[in-house]
Here is the input.
Amino acid sequence: MKSLALTVLFCVAVIVCFGIVPTRAANPVANRDVNDISHFVKFETGGTWLRDGDKITIDEIHGTSDKIETGQLYEIKGTYTLKSHDNATLCAYTTSNDPRHFPDMKPQSMKVTKGDGHFTIYFYTWCDGNAHLSFYPANGGESFASVYFGTGDNVLKHAGWLDDRKP
Here is the structure.
């Protein structure tokens, strides 16, 4: 009797397992790795506001999509020069009119020190808007340097609100 129960249980498990596998195999979206950042993003830089010898240069972007768009993950690599402060935080954010609050991910920012360096930042686009890399004071506060980037219509060409900012 135990043998029959185990055989039935085994058959049910095989049917369930093999019944699900073909369904997923036929659906490429179900098999897609949501963290696959193998797509090369042909981006362009837009509005830029730098001061006192600071520099942020994006060398390459790879993502889960080949364009900057909502709901995608990106790896941004580049170089920086920090001259205006001893320390800062380099962050990737989206400027948006969306009133919702979106979480920060730890790898979307990094602490940097005065001088030259390389960075790799991971950035998830929670909403529509204009992506940018910016320096912020190490202890918090408003950005003091920004480089906007994107693809197509989401590239902010000119950040007018930065025109009157004093360095």
In short: Strands lie at 39-40, 44-49, 55-63, 73-95, 109-124, 130-137, 145-150.
